[in-house]
Design a protein that fits this description.
Helix content: 25-40%
CATH topology of the largest domain: GMP Synthetase, Chain A, domain 3
Structural class: alpha+beta
Number of helices: 6
Number of domains: 3
Order of helices and strands: EHEEHEEHHEHEHEE
Strand order of the largest sheet: 1-3-2
Mean pLDDT: 80
CATH architecture of the largest domain: 2-Layer Sandwich
Largest sheet: 3 strands, antiparallel
Shape: elongated
CATH class of the largest domain: Alpha Beta
Length: 224
Amino acid sequence: MKDAIFSGEDVAAALAAASRALGQPVGALRYVVLQEPTPGRLGLTAQPARIAVMMDAGRSAGSPPSPEPEPEPQPDLPAQIGALGHRLSEATGLEIALGVAEKEGRLEVKIEGAGASAFLGDEGVPPALEHVLRRWAERAGQDLAVTGAGHRERRDEALRVRALQLADAVRVDGQPRRLEGLNSYERRIVHVALQDAPGIETFSVGEGTGRRVVIAPRVSTIED
């Protein structure tokens, strides 16, 4: 939108004319002075003051600026997880609940109740549930782990075994391996599992939810 030009016998008069035309108080106008008034003398014609009022693109003069959108409220993650546990119990007919506690900077979701073992008996259920809960946690900027009926222990052991298998593969072909997305707790399991592995080093690359553990051949040093 082009600037609006106004004139008057002086700058104050030009601003008053702009205020009347645009329906805005003088103090709300953003303007630049294009020409100061000059009196007529020696046969020269007097020149009025001229100003350019800067108009905001996308809205008409006199209309207030559009309000900033309200930030989207973040859901109460523990309450959301607890509600999911209630719905799962109703859907499966099992006596289960999802308890949430904060431990060492992350949320621990414990699958509780008399039906917990039966619920976790299907091998596909725990990883699917954990995937959903971790996606929720990522959106809330939090780490999350699922426990209950030995699930966490089995998951941790499986991760240790996989880390050792990948380390063996790295020794064979010398090519680094990058693991899938893991939270900070799981990355630590990999680092600890391989901290004394011969010929192997581990490190993390990336930031936030894109952070990954890399298992690589250890670079020899003079001390070695």
